[in-house]
Design brief:
Strands 4-3-2-5-6-7 form a six-stranded mixed β-sheet. It has a two-stranded antiparallel ribbon with strand order 1-8. It has helices at residues 11-28, 44-52, 104-115, 178-190; strands at residues 5-9, 34-40, 58-72, 75-82, 92-100, 120-128, 141-145, 169-172. The chain has a single domain (5-190), classed as Rossmann fold (3-Layer(aba) Sandwich), CATH 3.40.50. The chain has 191 residues and is α/β, with parallel strands linked by helices. β3 (58-72) and β4 form a beta hairpin. It starts with a strand and ends with a helix. It is 27% helix and 32% strand.
């Protein structure tokens, strides 16, 4: 049975905001070549639309992160792996992701890119969830701040991989935000 999806951000609203971000990035990098490093998988549609609105020369790169929980003694740690990043020394780099949530994975990647000594490194996200942040990371370009609902569409999938192809961003009916799930879990632990 297919879940009904309630539109949260329409195609027109997304297109307008992405175009605005593209214009701002174009102004900031005017006369320079920009290396756009896209985090797969959720951001592929956002990144494709964004680069079409950037008027300076663009070189596109893609990176996929894999994470695993590993036990070290009595602690459980998150181990993050990336494909080998491109050579970015002396380049202007824009890291693009759909959602900045805890920031752990993006912070790890940004540090790795920074070690390669790019000329500049900035972050563009479609949705920013600062209330979920676990590291000190702030995006330079934000489409929509404080998007706290569980969202699908426009590249974002459900846990089963569905709905990436929707032209809008929506919330499945009955879905509560990730923050709500955390609050319920914390409340249960306190009882």
């Amino acid at each position: 049975m297919k879940a009904e999806i309630k539109t949260v951000y329409s195609s027109a609203r997304l297109a307008g905001q992405v175009a605005k971000l593209g214009r701002r990035i174009s102004r900031d990098y005017s006369g320079r070549t920009l290396d756009v490093l896209t985090m797969l998988e959720d951001s592929f549609i956002f990144a494709a639309d964004l680069v079409r609105h950037i008027t300076c020369p663009v070189v596109c790169h893609f990176v996929h992160a894999e994470s695993h929980m590993v036990r070290v003694g009595s602690a459980e740690l998150k181990e993050i792996f990336f494909a080998h990043p491109p050579e970015l020394r002396g380049r202007d780099v824009l890291l693009v992701d759909a959602v900045l949530d805890t920031g752990v994975t993006l912070d790890f990647l940004a540090k790795r890119i920074h070690d390669a000594r790019p000329r500049s490194l900035r972050l563009a996200v479609l949705f920013d969830r600062p209330e979920s942040r676990r590291v000190d990371m702030r995006p330079d370009y934000v489409g929509f701040p404080a998007a706290s609902k569980y969202l699908v569409g426009y590249g974002l999938s459900s846990v089963t991989g569905l709905y990436r192809n929707l032209p809008f961003v929506g919330a499945p009916n009955g879905a509560r935000g990730r923050a709500s799930k955390r609050k319920r879990a914390a409340t249960k632990r306190k009882k």
